[in-house]
Design goal:
Chain lengths: ~290, ~600
């Protein structure tokens, strides 16, 4: 810790500032994980297990031991990430290893099963492991692709600014709608009463809000505005323009929310599935030795 | 009596601003319209929403003018009378109006309580921009799943196991919830034990022991004395030693346990035969360790397996001597029968002609075939001994007389009866009567003279009984009916006073250490293995050697048409029956059964 404090700018050899965890150290962990997978597959093909490969052969136990150690280590990222460090054992290196060794677990875990799957606790552990890995894979994908889209969509606005923009439009709508008769005012109220953050998980993830009150209000108001000439004096015209602006702002906000949700949702699978995996793994190992 | 209107609004920093106005009217209009006495810019209100009237000094009436009502102390109504001294709280859309009285004036205190819009309400950025509240909480899900799995897949089975009756002799109790522990279905034979895990897994954390198997399999033969098996087992390499160390650390039984060969939970269906490696561990280099063994090393049927040995008769006679000899192509086995296979199987010649003659009657083809004499046993594994009466006699007749259409035959297998029958025949019949002796022709003198017909006939009649000896000798001697096929002992040999025939011995099994099933080879012709059409002597052993088998069979892992592990022919637990094999053997059986033109071997 002292060395870190004394030379905060020191970088590990070969490390550049803009390397992400995927490219870390020139794909060092990708290479290591690939080698690991290659060794596992080659030995699987070369080792002659009778009558056929299964988790209970010496090869199966070896793969299983490697697998469970890897899983335990991979889980430790949850603790490790709370302490950021640099250098060879930096959090970035750790994350890089987490990603690639985690992916190699697909090969190691599958070879451990010997492709014998069934409706039992052993396959439950395998399925949970695959769920964790695949959700992680999704996470890597969104981390690698979405931040650019997120940044493009924001157009230099902060989240609070986005919300403030909606509020400003709402205030203007409220004022502009004052002269409107009750029926039309009720439509505007619908739009004002609609929670821009509402809509549930599905709407959040897909970015589709089929029951958007603003869109509904505008569509309904166009029954009145549609067959009137645009004179610039009618309060409805102003309300219509404001609803248009609100829709555009909401679209941006909802795109932002969708991207944020995608960046976040995989963890709600990854983390609980990891814990479920640890439990299933415990049951798997204990049951194997219980009925030894 | 005036109304005092106090409108309270909030500054950005939360400070209250109170604007008061006194309206000396007895009736006030309230609504969204800017012309209203009380103008509330609230879209929830109608432009002209309500009237507030002074009824008397103490009471006001509030009355809705449009279709929408208002709340009085939380209850929605369209009209209300309020005693100003008692006061009340009215609610119009997003505005709250408090009624009170002060110095004879009615005070209406108005404040906006609802935000202009949903978005304008106070929001926690970190909350609304995240999935909090939308997605299931991670921690709760995690712990829920952990608990569910640990209880369902661990606690329940262990509790059920621990609380099972200790003395479970009737075996009707089964542990609950351990079905999920099974790594795969049991084989066909053990299917009934599915779900009764503790039948085999008798103690927790103790691996399956032989004693569990022997509960049912009580009379399984040992392969060899345990001490010799221990000596015979090959010393493991470094890897093997390490694995053994790990196995014993985890409490696995030493090598040679039932489960070493008989793996379970490998899928439903028949259990697979033990793989070759389990045999060759010892037998691949057995001679190196068991120097006194008579067994030759064998590690793979295709590459390293000794020639087959057949149990042949070394010395014939009434005290025969047998020995196991390798089949080298010149091996003979004298079973006291004279039988040239080549003559009988020839497509041309007397036998073939005879076969054609008897075609309709005996069902032969244009020439004799193996099946005309050799009939399989009921199980098809081997062949019944050839039976003279059934298989030979249609051609090799022992008939010697016809009486009234009934054919008399010599009794096969009973030389004494043959002799007796022949003697009786010669005693009871006369020689053929010359034609000249009968009829009405005139007899001339001199016919009885020596050399003339009467003399010859009556002389023959007188001498006839003694002709039987000649006939008997002829039957048992070269050219006679017995001699052609049998080994005949003349009178005096073996202490017998009369003619004798050495019994023909037809073994139905030559190879006693291995198993061969003819039915499994029904797609082959007999000649593709047995060189019978070329054999001129019954003493030639027509068994094929290992090379013949190897045209189709190779080692377990070979690319031969039929990869064959040891267990295909040999049984570990030596018994009289066939080695155990699944009913549908794996391997490339279809390929092996296709017709082949090449690769036939002849000894």
């Amino acid at each position: 810790m002292a060395t870190r404090a004394s030379s905060p700018t020191r970088r590990a050899k070969g490390e550049t500032l803009h390397d992400g965890f995927l490219r870390h150290a020139n794909f060092r962990w990708l290479k290591i994980a690939t080698l690991l997978c290659f060794l596992a597959i080659a030995s699987y093909l070369m080792v002659d297990i009778t009558p056929r490969h299964n988790g209970g052969s010496w090869y199966g136990y070896t793969m299983g031991t490697i697998g469970v150690l890897l899983i335990l280590w991979l889980t430790l990222l949850g603790l490790r990430k709370r302490a950021m460090t640099r250098g060879r054992w930096s959090l970035k290196a750790w994350t890089s290893a987490h990603v690639y060794l985690g992916l190699s677990l697909i090969v190691i875990g599958t070879l451990h099963t010997g492709f014998q799957l069934g409706w039992n606790v052993h396959t439950l552990a395998y399925a949970l492991m695959m769920l964790v890995i695949l959700s992680g894979l999704f996470g890597i994908t969104v981390y690698a692709t979405l931040p650019t889209a997120l940044s493009n969509n924001r157009a230099e606005m902060t989240q609070v600014q986005m919300l403030e923009a909606v509020r400003a439009i709402d205030r203007q709508l409220h004022d502009a709608a004052q002269p409107l008769p009750q029926g039309q005012a009720a439509l505007v109220r619908q739009s004002l009463g609609d929670d821009p953050f509402g809509g549930g998980l599905i709407a959040r993830l897909t970015g589709r809000y089929p029951r958007c009150a603003t869109a509904a209000a505008q569509a309904a108001l166009r029954h009145w505005t549609g067959d009137h000439a645009d004179t610039g004096k009618e309060p409805l015209e102003k309300v219509d323009a404001l609803l248009e602006r609100k829709q555009a702002m909401l679209a941006r906000l909802r795109r932002h929310l969708k991207l944020k949700a995608l960046l976040e949702i995989w963890l709600t699978v990854h983390v609980p599935a990891t814990f479920a995996l640890l439990a299933a793994l415990t049951a798997h190992i204990v049951s194997v030795f219980f009925y030894w | 009596m005036p109304f005092i209107i106090r409108q309270i609004s909030l500054t950005a920093d939360g400070r209250e601003i109170v604007r008061a106005a006194t309206l000396a009217k007895s009736q006030l209009s309230l609504g969204r319209a800017s012309t209203s006495d009380i103008h509330l810019p609230d879209l929830a209100l109608e432009p002209d929403h309500a009237r507030i009237e002074q009824i008397d000094a103490r009471t006001i009436r509030v009355r809705a003018t449009g279709t929408l009502g208002f709340d009085v102390d939380g209850r929605t109504t369209r009209s209300a009378e309020i005693e100003t001294v008692k006061g009340a709280e009215l609610r119009f859309g997003g505005h709250r109006v408090t009624v009170s009285r002060e110095d004879d004036a009615t005070i209406l205190t108005i404040r906006r309580v609802d935000a202009v819009s949903q978005a304008s309400e106070e929001k926690e950025e970190s909350e609304v921009f995240s999935l909090r509240g939308l997605a299931p909480p991670k921690r709760l899900t995690a712990w829920g799943l952990v608990l569910a799995i640990l209880i369902g897949f661990l606690a329940v089975p262990i509790y059920s196991y621990a609380s099972r009756p200790t003395d479970d002799t009737r075996n009707i109790y089964s542990v609950k919830g351990d079905g999920a522990w099974s790594s795969g279905p049991l084989s066909q034979a053990h299917h009934a034990l599915e779900g009764k895990c503790e039948t085999c897994h008798q103690k927790a954390f103790v691996s399956v022991r032989d004693s569990a198997c022997q509960t049912c399999h009580k009379d399984v033969h040992d392969h060899a004395p345990a001490a010799r098996i221990a000596m015979a087992r090959a010393e493991p390499g470094i890897g093997g030693k390490f694995l053994n160390l790990v196995a014993s650390t985890f409490g696995k039984p030493p090598q040679g346990a039932c489960v070493d060969c008989h793996r379970e939970h490998e899928g439903a269906g028949p259990m697979q035969p033990a793989p070759q490696a389990f045999c060759t561990d010892c037998h691949g280099s057995l001679k190196d360790r068991l120097r006194d063994t008579k067994l030759v090393n064998a590690s793979d049927f295709g590459r390293d397996h000794p020639q087959f040995s057949a149990l042949v008769q070394r010395m014939n006679g009434i005290h025969p001597d047998f020995s196991r000899e390798p089949i080298d192509g010149r091996l003979t086995d004298d079973r006291n029968l004279k039988f040239p296979h080549d003559v009988h199987l020839a497509k041309t010649g007397g036998v073939a002609r005879m076969a054609r003659t008897l075609k309709a009657q005996a069902g032969y083809g244009d020439a004799l075939a193996c099946k005309d004499c050799h009939r399989p046993t009921a199980d098809g594994v081997r062949f019944l001994p050839v039976d003279m009466e059934r298989d030979c006699q249609s051609c090799h007749s022992l008939a010697f007389e016809t009486i009234g259409g009934t054919v008399r035959t010599l009794r096969h297998g009973q030389p004494d009866q043959v002799i007796a029958d022949l003697r009786a025949y010669y005693r009871s019949t006369g020689p053929a009567r010359p034609v000249a002796l009968g009829g009405m022709a005139r007899r001339r003198p001199g016919d009885y003279a020596q050399g003339q017909i009467y003399h010859a006939y009556f002389g023959a009649v007188a001498a006839r009984p003694s002709r039987a000896d000649d006939a008997i000798r002829a039957v048992f001697s070269k050219g006679g009916a017995c001699y052609d096929c049998h080994v005949v002992t003349p009178p005096g040999v073996n202490g017998e006073a009369s003619w004798g025939v050495l019994p023909v011995n037809q073994p139905n099994r030559y190879m006693t250490k291995g198993w061969f099933d003819h039915r499994a080879h029904s797609t082959e012709t007999c000649e593709s293995c047995h060189a019978a059409p070329k054999s001129h002597d019954a003493r030639q052993l027509l068994l094929p050697g290992i090379d013949s088998c190897r045209t189709c069979h190779g080692g377990e892992k070979s690319s031969a048409d039929v990869p064959s592990g040891c267990a295909m022919c040999h049984s570990y637990h030596a018994g009289d029956g066939a080695p155990w094999a699944p009913s549908t053997p794996g391997g490339k059986r279809d390929e092996a059964d296709r017709p082949r033109q090449t690769g036939r071997r002849q000894l």
